[in-house]
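Lecture notes, continued. The same structure-token format from the folding unit now serves as the input rather than the output. Read the line below as a description of shape only.
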């Protein structure tokens, strides 16, 4: 365990974000004189808070989780993506902390969502694909917060068996298509509906209770049965029209043939979906542009939801989390989608805006190895609720509330069950570090070992290289220990 680096992010201005930045969005529609009064009020608020009499100890923070689908770590302008425009999420990152090495414990929608809600690895929560998790509801973050008097909502995708509507004060669940026919016959885009439902929650909630809302967007998930795959709104079509999306260097066929033989074949679903999306240069451009259009639509919806928080004066007492359930291959290794323990699939964005953060920690980048299972305990700690003892993740807030970073994990256990059968999507497990990765494919008893510093594209499997026998032995031992702990 060593302390991670959590540093000021460089945006060209040389300045970190600040609460003033945060406030400016709220002030966009307010006259200058009123804005001065607001600024004065905020200064007074900051002073009172800094004197240590922050009312949050008596008034729990609200929780807003903005949960996108199938975004990978670089589906954000602020993460260096040269194409996709995500101005509202970039702004959120400047007002909070962006975690640059955030990972999922399982890279598939249903299981990763179960890990979000329970703070547990798949081995413990028991949802191996899309069924209900076995963890008692009272041990999830929505269940704990509702018990503790929060008004709790969920809008959008669920994907853990039947949506448990009765568990929520406000529950509207739907997913699977980008365009939805409503009961009155009208058609609406799923991202628009996500936004409307989130704002309905915020405007209709009782104001005498704290709240917790999870907004589970369906975009940018593909419409699996539709040859078009990604169906953005017509207004988005001019976006990215005149750009060429760079094709990753590891999209070359040579990289595909370096994969284990049970992945590098047309029966494998990752290769099958590559054929749906990326098998000609023209198709690659069309699919990636529509994928990025869907992402920008989610960014705009997040912007309007955050604006509603500002309008109601809630931003200074609401923890905001933006993340996603799994990463995505954009043709790297000749694959599409997710599931496997390679970097594109397991690394995902994470932004946390926490009003408790001191000004010196606002707008920072943090490279600690953080996980999806950390979010439930982070949310419960921020809300002032107790963390169920069977949650396995760790509260992230010391990484941005403290000036000196705490000791933090250097490796984690990854797991994925077989989907359908071992030729379609085989089971995989891994021990993932920033510098090395060990992968175990149990159905094929096949090992991979990658030196990520020398080989970031994970092309040269060193598992059978005698020069790395000692590293292999060490990683195997850590892998087995981490696997045991995940149960
Ligand atoms: Ca997903």
């Amino acid at each position: 365990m060593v302390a991670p680096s959590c540093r000021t992010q460089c945006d060209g201005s040389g300045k970190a974000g600040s609460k003033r930045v945060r406030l400016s969005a709220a002030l966009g529609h307010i006259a200058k004189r009123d804005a001065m009064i607001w600024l004065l009020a905020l200064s007074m608020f900051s002073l009172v808070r800094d004197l240590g009499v922050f009312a949050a100890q008596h008034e729990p923070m609200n929780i807003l989780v903005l949960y996108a689908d199938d975004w990978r770590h670089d589906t954000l302008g602020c993460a260096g993506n040269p194409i996709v425009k995500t101005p509202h999420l970039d702004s959120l990152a400047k007002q909070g902390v962006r975690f640059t090495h955030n990972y999922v414990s399982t890279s598939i929608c249903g299981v990763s969502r179960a890990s979000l809600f329970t703070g547990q690895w798949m081995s413990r929560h028991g949802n191996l694909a899309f069924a209900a998790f076995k963890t008692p509801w009272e041990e999830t973050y929505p269940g704990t917060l509702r018990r503790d008097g929060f008004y709790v909502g969920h809008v959008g995708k669920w994907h853990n068996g039947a949506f448990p509507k009765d568990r929520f004060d406000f529950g509207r669940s739907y997913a699977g298509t980008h365009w939805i026919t409503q009961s009155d016959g009208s058609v609406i885009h799923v991202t628009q509906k996500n936004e409307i439902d989130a704002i309905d929650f915020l405007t209709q909630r009782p104001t005498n209770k704290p709240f917790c809302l999870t907004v589970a967007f369906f975009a940018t998930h593909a419409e699996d049965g539709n040859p078009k795959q990604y169906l953005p709104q017509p207004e988005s079509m001019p976006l990215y029209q005149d750009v060429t999306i760079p094709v990753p260097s590891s999209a070359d066929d040579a990289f595909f043939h370096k994969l284990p033989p049970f992945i590098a074949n047309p029966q494998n679903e990752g290769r099958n979906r590559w054929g749906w999306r990326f098998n000609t240069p023209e198709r690659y451009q069309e699919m990636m542009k529509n994928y990025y259009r869907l992402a920008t639509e989610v960014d705009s919806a997040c912007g309007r939801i955050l604006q509603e928080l500002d309008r109601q004066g809630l931003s200074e007492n609401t923890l905001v989390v933006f993340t996603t359930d799994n990463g995505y291959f954009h043709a790297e290794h000749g694959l599409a989608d997710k599931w496997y323990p390679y970097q594109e699939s397991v690394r995902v964005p994470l932004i946390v805006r926490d009003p408790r953060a001191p000004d010196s920690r606002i707008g920072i980048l943090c490279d600690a190895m953080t996980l999806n299972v950390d979010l439930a305990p982070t949310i419960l700690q921020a809300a002032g609720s107790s963390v169920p003892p069977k949650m396995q993740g760790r509260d992230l807030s010391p990484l941005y509330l403290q000036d000196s970073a705490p000791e933090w994990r250097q490796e984690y256990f990854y797991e994925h069950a077989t989907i359908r059968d071992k030729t379609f999507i085989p089971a995989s497990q891994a021990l993932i570090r920033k510098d090395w990765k060990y992968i175990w494919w149990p159905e094929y008893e096949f090992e991979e070992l990658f030196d990520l510093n020398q080989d970031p594209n994970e092309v040269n499997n060193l598992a059978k290289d005698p020069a790395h026998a000692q590293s292999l032995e060490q990683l195997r031992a850590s892998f087995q220990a981490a696997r045991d702990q995940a149960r």
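Point for the exam: Residues 69-70, 109, 221, 325-326 surround calcium ion (CB under 6 Å).
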